[in-house]
Structures are given as structure tokens and as C-alpha cells.
Design a protein that fits this description.
single chain, about 90 residues, mainly alpha, about 40% helix, globular
Length: about 90
């Protein structure tokens, strides 16, 4: 993600309590830090790109993500997204 120098758009942001997989969150926080943006800004950018069917991360950031996934032992991928379950519910359906 890159920041382009354009006119800013005023928005109303709200605080939210979103639960995320721990290692995914670590990768996201580290990526935001490496890009000198907030976690919220990173997530907004990813979502806005996804809403338009566009890739949110370029080759440089994807390489960073690959490194961070190794650091934080994140072995999940897109195919995992609909199979994640809280470990406290591991035996339940």
C-alpha cells in the first residue's frame, strides 16, 4: 500500500472490538508499522481494495508479508478462511 498525495476525505471513524486470529493480527500490525501507518489505515485500505476486486498489496508488501508469516509462524492461507474456529470451540460444531 502506498499513500498518494491527494486531497483528504473527511470520514467518521468508530472504535470497534474485532476478534482476529492472533498470528494474523501480529502480521498486520508489523506490516502497518513497516509502512508507517496505523493498523486501522491498513485494514481500511485492504477492505476498500477488496470491495473493488483489486489486490490491496503490491509485490514489495507481499514479500514483507511472506517474511512476517515466517517470523510469526503463520501457516494459514486463503483456503483456511472459512475453516477457522476458536480453539475454545475445537470439539464443537
Amino acid at each position: 500500500m502506498t499513500r498518494k498525495s491527494r486531497a483528504t476525505i473527511p470520514v467518521e471513524r468508530v472504535q470497534t472490538g474485532v476478534r482476529l486470529e492472533k498470528r494474523i493480527l501480529k502480521v498486520l500490525k508489523a506490516l502497518a508499522d513497516l509502512n508507517d501507518i496505523t493498523l486501522g489505515d491498513l485494514l481500511e485500505g485492504i477492505v476498500l481494495h477488496a470491495f473493488e476486486g483489486k489486490a490491496p498489496l503490491g509485490p514489495e508488501n507481499l514479500a514483507k508479508v511472506a517474511e512476517l508469516k515466517k517470523v510469526f509462524q503463520l501457516d494459514l492461507d486463503a483456503s483456511s478462511s472459512h475453516r477457522l474456529r476458536d480453539s475454545s470451540h475445537a470439539g464443537r460444531r
